[in-house]
Design brief:
The chain is an all-alpha fold. It has one domain. Helices cover 71% and strands 0% of the residues. The longest helix has 39 residues. The protein is rod-shaped and about 70 Å long.
C-alpha cells in the first residue's frame, strides 16, 4: 500500500516543525532530511493519485453501459 499525499505532507510538516523546534544540530539535520524525503514522496503520491483519478474517469466515460445499449442480465428468467 502506498502512502497518500495527505499523509506525506503531514509528515513533511511534522519533520519541518521538529527541525525548527530543536536546539540539537544532529536532530535538526536528520529532521530536515526526513522532511525533504517526505516532500519528494508527496510529489510522487500526488502524481499517482492524479493518474488513478484519470483512469477512473476514463473507465466511467468509456466502459459504462448506456441506457438501452444491450444491458446484460445475469438472471436467466427473462
Amino acid at each position: 500500500m502506498y502512502p497518500s499525499a495527505t499523509l506525506c505532507r503531514t509528515q513533511e510538516a511534522s519533520q519541518n516543525d521538529r527541525a525548527r523546534g530543536t536546539t540539537l544540530e544532529n536532530v535538526r539535520v536528520v529532521a530536515m532530511k526526513a522532511a525533504k524525503a517526505w516532500g519528494k514522496e508527496a510529489i510522487v503520491a500526488e502524481e499517482r493519485e492524479a493518474r488513478g483519478e484519470r483512469v477512473r474517469r476514463h473507465k466511467l466515460l468509456h466502459l459504462a453501459p448506456f441506457p438501452g445499449d444491450g444491458e446484460i442480465r445475469l438472471d436467466r428468467t427473462m
